[in-house]
Amino acid sequence: MGANSVSSSEPETLYIQHFNEESRPLAFYLQKMGGYAAAKKAFAMTPDSIIEEVKKANLRGRGGAGFPTGMKWSFIPKQSPKPKYLVCNADESEPGTFKDRDIMRYTPHVLIEGMIIGAYAFGANNGYIYIRGEYVREAKLLNEAIDEAYKAGYLGKNILGSGFNFDLTVHRGAGAYICGEETGLLNSLEGKRGEPRVKPPFPAISGAFGGPTAVNNVETLAAVPHIINRGGEWFSKLGKIEKSGGTRLFCVSGHVKKPGLYEFNAGSVTLRELIYDHCHGILGDKKLKAVIPGGSSAPVLTADEIDVVLDIEPLMKIGSMLGSCGIMVVSEDTCVVQLLARITKFYAHESCGQCTPCREGCKWMEDVIERIEHGHGREQDLALLLDIADNINGKTLCALGDAAAGPVMSFVKKFRADFEAHIRGGKCPNA
Amino acid sequence: MPKCIIDGREAEFAPGQNLIEVAKTVGVEIPYFCYHPGLSVVAQCRMCTVEIEKMPKLQTACSTAATEGMVVKTRSARAIQNQKSVMEFLLINHPLDCPICDKAGECDLQDESFAYGSPYSRYTEERRTYLDLDMGPVIKKNMNRCIHCTRCIRFGTEVAGIHEMVAVQRGNNTEITTIDGRPLETDYAGNYADVCPTGSLTLKDFRFKKRAWFLKKTSTVCEGCAKGCNMELHQDGNVIYRSLPRENMEINKYWLCDEGRFNFHYVHDQRRVLNPAIASASGLQMTDWKAGIAAAKAALAGRKVAILAGSDLTLEEAKLLLEVAPKQFGGAPVFHFGTPGIKTVLDDAPADKILKRKSKTSNLNGVEKLGIKPYAGLPAGIDAVLVVRGGRAQLPTDLDQAKSLVGIGVFNQPQVAKFAAVLPGASFAEKDGTIVNYEGREQKIKRAINPIGKSKLLPEILMMWVNQ
């Protein structure tokens, strides 16, 4: 998986072409990748014009929600009695997602430079990279890169003579999915339980330690140096669809012949092209059963629904979501009931337990689906499942409830026959 | 004032007021569990979700401030559906053991379930259970009943100033407990039971004593210290079963300390002197009122008497003493006593950062305002003392120096072993009156029960004294 999966049809990629061991050191970044030129350029610009450039770039958050990055930064108040913070969300906890890991592993300095520019743009002097606990190696590599950057004067006091100070710290998570939710992340960063906060106030007003905070995904921040170097308009035009600029990293896993990380211009590829052209089709040339297009929380698509352009709006239109671009391909000999049981178990396990519908409902759904999978389902269980999911969806404190409800509703609706076969036959028909 | 519309009713609000509070002002009840006006807002239980025009999602009323022109529907089809579903979620793992639960009858979960829930359950899986935990002498925990509202955690950190209640584990296995399972440390622990909207945290003191619906409630004021916290006394059959804080935003807000909460127990103390008693060779001997008063009079006759008035007496009682002292007790001087080391209101100060004061009697300020001087040892020439007190003022240790001692009021047997006569009086729960707290606020205490045993109110006792 990973670095060798460069798409040959594209002459240039922003990320993937550098995904190899030799790109990592600062020396390589400076000599071969034009490293820290963007930071220099940014220091010559006004903070507002940097935000303007990012807005022009149509850069949308790559963590899953797709919120326009420039807009997010513009919400941070100019004057604040409390310190402002830039937090990089490197928790990458959505199952099926593995793009940020390679950015941090192979090109940590791109991320660091992106954070310096972002922090300068809205006036933060402190930054954190909240990295998931399992990324032990990446945390170590990031720390080494940060040390390099400090030594070379790219971090710390008076960066490149600009008068701007920026300190960057890597904070390792302890392995909770919910700490990928931005306010859960901030609580965890502050040393509290990883529980999402009530919004409003949004982090832009009161985030880390009560100060105005922007929380951005790794891939998002790593796009910023490119935008400053080559202009927002250039970046925007990389996108082949309205409202989305730049390129996107797709993490393809599951039953394809060539899984891995792929990079395409935003909106330039359909799901069918990705699976059959770039990933060389389904393993063993079996039939396609289902695709989860945006990490395990995205509602599932059937084999008939894959002629969809992979971007935020097209997927939303057919009732799913692009999310974090974690594409999981499922072939015909997979039991979708078992698959849903596993996904739901994950969300029940990862629910923080704060709010009622998610705490009680996710476990209830897990129990019912597991019962069905083991052949103890009842006819009324499917209606019950849909009802529980509906009672969770959109009614929880954070988006985890939606993430758990979406798969249940889509699996039961789209693969109802499989569920009914389990209930009526008392076992998995494929077993 | 700005206005919004709640269920078709126009409601005025102060900027920043949340929808639950605004709705209350126009008679609309929005159900909630995790919200508490005295604690921070966490919007966790999701019970208070309402529909607001121009907002696609349902919003939690507790965390939504009213804005000008906002149109809120608390009983729309979607809001009702959500109330039903939250009730269902809260009850699927609840043991539904109301028949043996102390909270039944005054339980938020029970009440809201009755009002908003469904009488049927669709849950057929095994219910979640937890192991028991001893949380010390005040609170009994039953985690199976918990709905994870976290009010207790927030009360600890935000009001009691101690982070001892925590959530451990997560998701469906979340357990609300103390850090490392240690016993509770705060001396405000009783409030944990008050804020709990279910029967998971109940008072050990009240456990299995009485059904809540049998209790008659009297609004009164705590006599535990000079703060004057407002409280309710709950009684049935002339027996007090508990006291609960009563909201007064200017004094104690919603809270009560454990000392004040459990102070009432002396009223029903086995050792309390409930009959007139006179000294005999074998110790104090019970007698009737006539003999008691005769013995008391005899003990003081021909002696130089001083009157010691507890600063736990009401203003009315203290005033009465001052009136009868010149004629009936030969102009005996009157002094007040109450808390060792606290002679005047100037010595009184906060004893902690929450409610407690150093003066452990309720009316120090009042008796001082009547001109009564603090007791500072027996004056020269005095050889007899008449002690008049409620149940709270601490007896001076040097009373033995007097040749003759007579007590009127609330005493227990060890306290009066050397007394010549004791006439049983009324405690704060058995009388009406006025007390003045540390800041000069006059408050009424109310009689919750009739004087128990043979005890009588002070005016009655003095009347008998005068007429006999």
Tell me the overall shape of chain B: elongated
> What is the end-to-end distance of chain A?
30 Å
**Number of DSSP helical runs of chain A:** 17
Which chains make the largest contact? A-B, 29 and 35 residues
Number of DSSP helices of chain B? Answer: 10
The amount of beta strand of chain B, in percent, is 15-25%
Q: Which secondary-structure class do the elements of chain B indicate?
A: alpha/beta
**Strands of chain A, total number:** 9
How many structural domains can be distinguished in the coordinates of chain B? 3
Structural class of chain A: alpha/beta
- In CATH, what is the class of the largest domain in chain B? Alpha Beta
Largest sheet: spatial strand order of chain B: 14-13-20-19-18-15-16-17
Rg of chain A from C-alpha positions? 22 Å
In total, the number of strands of chain B is 22
**Mean pLDDT across all amino acids of chain B:** 96
Quick structural overview:
The complex is a heterodimer of chains A (431) and B (468). Chain A has helices at residues 26-32, 37-43, 47-56, 69-74, 99-106, 108-122, 136-151, 182-189, 218-230, 232-238, 271-278, 312-317, 336-350, 356-373, 381-392, 400-414, 416-425; strands at residues 85-90, 126-131, 167-172, 213-217, 247-254, 260-265, 288-292, 301-302, 326-331. Chain A is an alpha/beta fold and 431 residues long.
Description:
The complex is a heterodimer of chains A (431) and B (468). By secondary structure, chain A is an alpha/beta fold. Helix content of chain A is 42%, strand content 12%. Chain A has helices at residues 26-32, 37-43, 47-56, 69-74, 99-106, 108-122, 136-151, 182-189, 218-230, 232-238, 271-278, 312-317, 336-350, 356-373, 381-392, 400-414, 416-425; strands at 85-90, 126-131, 167-172, 213-217, 247-254, 260-265, 288-292, 301-302, 326-331. Chain A has a 5-stranded mixed β-sheet with strand order 6-5-9-7-8, with no helix packed on it. In chain A, strands 3-2-1-4 form a 4-stranded parallel β-sheet, with helices on both faces. The longest helix of chain A is centred in the C-terminal third of the chain and has 18 residues, at 356-373. The two termini of chain A are 30 Å apart. Mean pLDDT of chain A is 95; it is low at 1-10. Chain B has 468 residues and is an alpha/beta fold. Chain B has helices spanning 19-25, 77-92, 108-116, 151-160, 190-195, 258-261, 289-300, 315-328, 364-369, 458-467, and strands spanning 3-6, 9-12, 49-52, 59-60, 71-73, 139-141, 165-168, 175-178, 201-203, 216-221, 230-236, 239-245, 277-280, 283-286, 305-310, 334-337, 373-374, 384-389, 404-409, 421-424, 433-436, 442-445. Chain B has 3 domains: 3-90, Ubiquitin-like (UB roll), CATH 3.10.20.740; 125-211, Alpha-Beta Plaits (2-Layer Sandwich), CATH 3.30.70; 277-467, Rossmann fold (3-Layer(aba) Sandwich), CATH 3.40.50. Chain B has 10 helices and 22 strands. Chain B starts with a strand and ends with a helix. In chain B, the strands form 6 sheets. Chain B has an 8-stranded mixed β-sheet. Chain B has a 5-stranded mixed β-sheet with strand order 2-1-5-3-4, sandwiched between helices. The A-B interface holds A 176, 178, 193, 198, 348-357, 359-364, 367-368, 371, 384, 391, 394-397 and B 41-47, 49, 57-58, 60, 63, 81-82, 85-86, 88-90, 92-93, 122-123, 125, 128, 147-148, 150, 167, 169-174.
